[in-house]
Amino acid sequence: LACEVPVSLCPGAPNSVSSIAGAEMFLTGSPYLSTNDVRFTLFGMPPNAPMLLFHGGGTGNVPLGDGNLCIAAGAQGLFRGAVGLSGAGDPPFAPAAEGSITVNLDAAPYVSGASAILAGASWNFQAAYRDSTTFGTGFNFSSAVMVTFCM
After folding, report:
1. How far does CA 38 lie from the centroid of its chain?
2. Mean pLDDT, all residues of the chain
3. For residue 89, what are the CA distances in angstroms to 8, 47, 58, 60, 81?
4. What whole-number percentage of the chain has pLDDT above 90?
5. Distance of CA 29 to the CA centre of its chain
6. Model pTM?
7. 90: pLDDT strictly greater than 90
8. H or E segment at 27?
9. What does the alpha-carbon distance between residue 135 and residue 91 come to, in Å, rounded to a whole number?
10. 34: three-class secondary structure by DSSP
11. What's the rounded Cα separation, in Å, for the pair 4 and 55?
12. What is the pLDDT averaged over residues 77-99?
């Protein structure tokens, strides 16, 4: 049984290095639970920015920080999980950086309870990140993506 293609839910908001698209997040790992290789890559990030991944069963559009929280609790809840750090970028030629967040499906909050990621389940993911380089409130959100998992 093949996994479904991840679906983009909302765009990122402009940030200190990308005045149009903001940070865009993509599933670059695998939605197959058997590989335990769930990884998200973010492009258009401020350099050296801490990132925190959230997942939930619903969608929304709540203005927060300098962007929008596009995922919501749904029936299960809204959970925070894996963390990451964007790279250094290459100013002045490429001031935007990229970062990645790896999800360990064998660790909390992904392994049990209401936040467990199981075969056949669809979850929405979005990253919050620090953007303290003379821009707005100091934090923002990436684009969001829905991933349906399979064995």
Report:
1. 11
2. 90
3. 25, 6, 33, 31, 25
4. 73
5. 13
6. 0.92
7. no
8. strand 24-27
9. 17
10. helix
11. 18
12. 83
